[in-house]
Specification:
Blueprint: H1 2-9, H2 19-37, E1 45-49, E2 56-58, E3 61-63, E4 72-76, E5 79-83, E6 90-96, E7 102-108, E8 120-126, E9 132-138, E10 143-148, H3 149-159, E11 167-171, E12 184-187, E13 192-196, E14 213-218, E15 223-229, E16 249-253, E17 259-264, E18 269-274, E19 280-285, E20 302-310, E21 314-323, E22 335-342, E23 347-357, E24 359-363, E25 368-372, E26 379-383
Parallel strand pairs: 1-19, 2-23
Antiparallel strand pairs: 3-26, 4-5, 5-6, 6-7, 8-9, 9-10, 10-11, 12-13, 13-14, 14-15, 16-17, 17-18, 18-19, 20-21, 21-22, 22-23, 24-25, 25-26
Length: 385
Amino acid sequence: MAIYLNLVLNINKFTTLSMREIIYMLICVCLFCACQSEKNYFNGETYTINLPFAVDTLDGKELHFDEVQTGEMFVYDSLLFFSSSKYPGYSVSIFNVKSGKHLANCFNRGQGPYEFHNLSFIRYVTYEDNRPHLYAYAVNEQQLIDIDIMAFLKKLTQTGNVDYSAVQVDECLWSTYHTVPFNYQYPLNKRFLLVKTSFESPFMNEEEPMLPTYELIDTKKKEVTRSYSIYQTPIKNDNLQDKSLVYLSTDAIRPDGKQIAMAMGVMPQLIITNMETGEMTCHEIANMLKQKIEKATEENIYLYYKSTVADERHIYSLFVNKPFFQKAGEKLPQGNEIHVFDWNGNLLTRWYIRHAADEIRLDYKGKLLYAKNNITDQIHVYHLK
């Protein structure tokens, strides 16, 4: 702006320039100033993408179960796992998706073998032996739970009992590296674990916060072997009491472990990181942001992406586009729209679902998408197009 004013005040000095040349110079300076005002907080290139005009409607089917089960869900083939803090005796309940029958409660609460305070299901991986492994994370115990799902299913379907011999428990010590738990944990193979760290507030006001990063941990050597920096500078906002809010995201890893997608909560952006090269690209929806993130307040900040899953070809993210903070006592807003990206960051299509949802999950084997409303506990299943 100072350059612009200086040009205006001294315009008579440009007697050797034509008026067209002077106007061109002023336009260039203004464009330069405008570009400088838009700060890129992420590493790598930022690309602007357009929101597709057309919206396809997905017609799903509501699932019905023996009884209502609240909490996070995870689906594998014919099984639906619910991990909930509601029940005092156990943390996981299992249902048959097709029949709705309640099959078992497992992973009791306590301090004994295979007992945990709570579990979060994170992903399943098929290793070289071609046996799928289902993973869960116990944040309080700092443990990673590896379930040989085929052995687990065999005993469950034959006897109705849980086979804990199919379960292996390993350390996942976030406190060794950080002051707060990991946001995400992705076992890449039997040895390497990819984690997403949380925002960590500084101990003193003059210190910079520790920003979320991806870290590759060698579980045998118990050391971080590689870090992937996501942010090139902290996001400054003095209006929000919770400074971590601007870093809110829902992440999903490609099944082959080669790429990871990060859909931002309070910014209409998808960030894709190549885990082999470390290259990062940011894909921002044009003309969508209601308020610059540096100036956002609790009164005008919006929630954009709330839940994200991915397969080999696509990234699916639940789009909300509503005020983050609603009336007192209300939970986070829900979404009725799913954005479908490819792994190059192209927004391919928009899907409208008739029932509002809080989370979505994929059944990779059956090519099905599940959407759950955490207020009503309704679950709908959709066939992927």
